[in-house]
Amino acid sequence: MVQPTNTFGHPKKGDGYFELIDFNLVRNLPDGRQVKGTYGVNVVKVREVIHMPRINPLASTVNGVEGIFELRGVPIPAINLCTILGDTRATVSPEDQIIVTEFAHKRAGFIVQQTNRIRRVPWEKILPPSADKASSMTGMMLIEDNEFLFILDLERIISQLENMATGRPAFVQENSPLPPMLSPRKLGYPTILLVDDSSLILNSVARSLNQEGYGIVLARNGLEGIQRLEEANQSGYVIDAIITDLEMPQMDGLSLLKKIRQHSTYSRIPVYLHTSLSDTGSRETAKQLGANEFFVKNDIGTILRYLKTQLLGATLSA
Questions:
Q1: 20-66 pLDDT per residue, tens
Q2: Are residues 144 and 31 in the same domain?
Q3: Do 121 and 213 sit in the same domain of this protein?
Q4: Residue 176 falls within a domain, yes or no?
């Protein structure tokens, strides 16, 4: 078992591997079965694992949020993962643990039955999630005893909770074919390739950039990003910049960046790393690999300001 109150360090990036902490959830499925499943989250997003604290309920209920607990004076929401995954009932036991995470300047506590171990996993072993898992999973992998470990998409879970009351039309639906290029809405504006396995993030950033005037091409992982670049090259249209997530199944953002910088045709395209991770190790690795900038995920205002000064002006004056 991973020891509670452990503060996790930052694993080495850029070598085709990442580290995740795996844990168990006891699920009460809609068909009446109770099953024990294995899940995982990226260790870089984990601050520590703690024993179940006292949770104070919220005045207004949000499905999936058990309440608020304090950790060294900081209030943190406690999220019941079994509720998020659709269980018919999801009780909380004093024996449960909480995985405390921090990403995109937000802290959250995720209730789990038991943490087990830290795994070092090659990105190519990560499979896209099956259709019924897509709303909360970023990938899955085969582990011991022919069991699947499901990797949770914590950003998507948080975004769904935050936006539960608002319904907005989307460019991208889960598991649907990607739309063709969204043409620039203003004459001469650059076209940007967005690469992210989260449909929520793709929709949010694509909508904001396209409304501003930029053309948009979408990809769900690094492999699709390479395909989009090749399609653009064959079709004669220009991709002026790339904004890519770091953590994606099949090919992660740093591997995509490496391939772009090694390719004679694409090597000069500006590449911006778009991630929830704020550790200095990620920034340094990205710079060493040739990234042009490092954005906090979904910080739309900063992205728009940077593109306006660093990309738009250069493109319009070219």
A1: 999 999 999 888 889 999 999 989 889 999 999 999 887 656 788 89
A2: yes
A3: no
A4: no
Q: CA torsion, points 150, 35, 110, 207, in degrees to nearest 10?
A: 50
One domain, residues 22 and 157: yes
Q: CA 242, CA 225: separation in Å to the nearest integer? A: 9
Residue found by looking up tokens 């999936």 in the block? 64
CA distances for 89 relative to 77, 81, 85, 92, 225, angstroms: 19, 11, 11, 10, 40
Q: Dihedral sign, CA of 309, 13, 156, 99?
A: negative
| 66 and 117 together in one domain | yes
Enclosing domain of residue 261 = 191-317
At 203, which CATH number? 3.40.50.2300
pTM: 0.65
Q: How far apart are CA 303 and CA 310, in angstroms?
A: 10
The mean-pLDDT minimum among 25-29, 104-108, 142-146 falls in 104-108
| Residues 273, 275, 277: CA angle, nearest 5 degrees | 120
Q: How many domains does the chain have?
A: 2
In the chain, the amino acid numbered 177 is: P
The reported pLDDT for the residue numbered 230 is 95
Q: What is the pLDDT of residue 157?
A: 86
Q: Is residue 38 in some structural domain? A: yes
Measured from the Cβ of residue 295, the count of other Cβ atoms closer than 10 Å reads 17
Q: Distance (Å, rounded) from C-alpha 126 to C-alpha 138?
A: 9
Would 7 be classed as within a structural domain?
no
Contact 138, 156 (CB under 8 A): yes
